[in-house]
Amino acid sequence: MIHDLPVLIQGGMGAGVSDWRLARAVASTGNLGVVSGTGLDTLIARRLQDGDPGEHVRRALDAFPIDGVAERIIEKYFIDGGKEPEERYRSKPMPRVEPSRNLLDLIVASNFVEVYLAREGHSGPVGINYLEKIQTPHLPAIYGAMLAGVDYVLMGAGIPMAIPGVLDRLSEGLPVEYRLDVKGAERGEAFVTTFDPSEFSGGTLPPAPRSKFLAIVSSHILATALVRKASGRVDGFVIEGPTAGGHNAPPRGKVKISDVGEPIYGDRDVPDLDVFRELGLPFWLAGGYGEPGQIAEALRLGATGVQVGTAFAYCEESGFTAETKRQVLALSKAGKAKIFTDPVASPTGFPFKVVEIEGSLSDRVVYEKRSRICDLGYLRTAYRRDDGTVGWRCPSEPVDDYLRKGGSEADTIGRKCLCNSLIANIGHPQVQRNGDVEGELITSGDDVANVARFIPEGRGSYRAIDVIRYLLPTSTP
Known about the structure:
Layout: E1 8-10, H1 20-27, E2 33-36, H2 40-49, H3 56-62, H4 69-77, H5 101-119, E3 126-131, H6 138-147, E4 152-156, H7 163-171, E5 176-179, E6 182-183, E7 192-195, H8 197-201, E8 212-217, H9 220-229, E9 236-240, H10 273-279, E10 283-286, H11 292-300, E11 305-308, H12 310-313, H13 322-333, E12 339-342, E13 352-355, H14 364-369, E14 381-384, E15 390-393, H15 399-404, H16 418-425, H17 464-471
Parallel strand pairs: 1-11, 2-3, 3-4, 4-8, 6-14, 8-9, 9-10, 10-11
Antiparallel strand pairs: 5-7, 12-13, 14-15
Helix pairs in contact: 1-5, 2-5, 3-5, 4-5, 5-6, 6-7, 9-10
């Protein structure tokens, strides 16, 4: 079911911050609730190892429409009563060009689970958000979300030219492929990952309706290219400005750094809304639209609506831990919540917005004490080995390993392991073999300074509905 276009899109934040509870709370009001598609295979495996509180994962797996998959996942990862806090989580396979059947099971089913739970109990629209740069899981992940009836697929942090065609083919049960960005690939050389729904399902294809596709962009140039050259229909755009949380597009042209070490954005980074209006597709504005007057201005400029993330990040339904929410709301109340747009923290090379919290990896001392390890691998870069095969390296991995794989030492300075820290943010930190517990690195948009404004009088926290009532006072009960 595809719904009327929403005015409000809840942003897809981090790994598990925009989880099914938050998306369901927003979607049940008729706005677009969005789950984050990043790292769901790790997240579902760890929820099961924590005993599956509330039995939500197993309830969703019971509805998975392909025989044998749920049973294999539960047998492999579920721990009745949950693992002990000092025990390590059982590892799952790293992303790869040709995933094993075990990894495919986990990717498809985990995306199904998160969307299935987000869609329970209401008829509102649900979307899922992916980062284009995390390429190898795209095909099975999108298929799993489509099996659960996801209404929208949103994708940014890259150029998602192939995604519309992937949606078309998956909805028809046809094999798909995705071209990978491989550093050092020779002219005419192509590396692809593939997925065949019929092979995965054993020949009996469950329905997988085609989702609408919204490209997350920061430039009218990219939007125009997508409309003209994408492999299928683009249904609209989310236009993210540099104040939005998480990864930001780097400034256009030569990057300049401010006195405090942040990238400087200028006039070239302001999207031309005239071009978007001429394209004739719906668009939503994101980054700095957390006030009713700003939403009204977006509508006046021709936008269908806005995307809001940070306002929802610290509500009761979000995936951040209760302690993280308490800390950030206290900082916001005191006027001390600060964001640093770190140009080097992310292994992707994109600027990454970090909330400065004592004791987290935003603290230089804490960061320098952490032992480097790359054991989740979502943000690794593919590179061509001398023998023509694909290798993987990450500037956040142990420096000697990165150099051995042809990387530059300069690229490792200041890099942080977002994969582990983002999973730690939502209460599932790995206990490493040396006994260290992975630390948090909280990301939000600039609006984190003011999130305490959503707390109703006489309460210490707020819910998603409080945000919606604040932003859309004339359209909510």
